[in-house]
Design goal:
Elements lengths: L7 H6 L7 E4 L3 E5 L7 E7 L14 H17 L7 E4 L3 H4 L8 E5 L9
Antiparallel strand pairs: 1-2, 2-3, 3-5, 4-5
This protein binds guanosine-5'-monophosphate (5GP).
Guanosine-5'-monophosphate binds next to β2.
Length: 117
């Protein structure tokens, strides 16, 4: 899956479909997951349509660093800084990825289990 095909997340970036946006800057966008798996479940995406983590390249290093630091910031905005949270990136079929636009799940508000399913 090397093509940067359009996805539902591309439509959210372009405001073609609605999402409950919680953070945005010039590089990234964060919005509430439509099918929340925890009391807080936020999706954080780069505006650049990288299909999945495996498609990221060395030129994306600054963007990936920004994504991770923004995940921390968004978790703080969501009130998760004290009790903690989980960051998840699903990559490819075995990883359970369903939307092929790189995204970080930010999950919190309950005790997480391990191992993940
Ligand atoms: P994945 O399974 O690819 O790691 O995660 C995709 C996530 O996107 C899922 O948690 C799913 O609920 C969420 N999602 C899919 N379509 C939409 C949508 O149209 N709006 C929002 N807000 N979330 C979506």
């Amino acid at each position: 899956m090397s093509e940067t095909t359009d996805t539902i997340f591309g439509k959210i970036i372009r405001r073609e479909i609605k999402a409950d946006i919680v953070y945005e800057d010039e590089l990234v966008l964060a919005f509430k997951d439509i099918n929340a798996q925890a009391p807080v479940h936020i999706i954080l995406i780069p505006k650049k349509p990288i299909a999945r983590l495996a498609e990221a390249e060395s030129d994306d290093a600054n963007l990936l660093g920004h994504l991770l630091l923004t995940a921390k910031h968004v978790a703080e905005i969501a009130g998760l800084q004290t009790n903690g949270y989980r960051i998840v990136i699903n990559n490819g079929p075995d990883g359970g990825q369903t939307v092929y636009h790189l995204h970080i799940h930010i999950l919190g508000g309950r005790q997480m289990a391990w191992p993940p399913g």
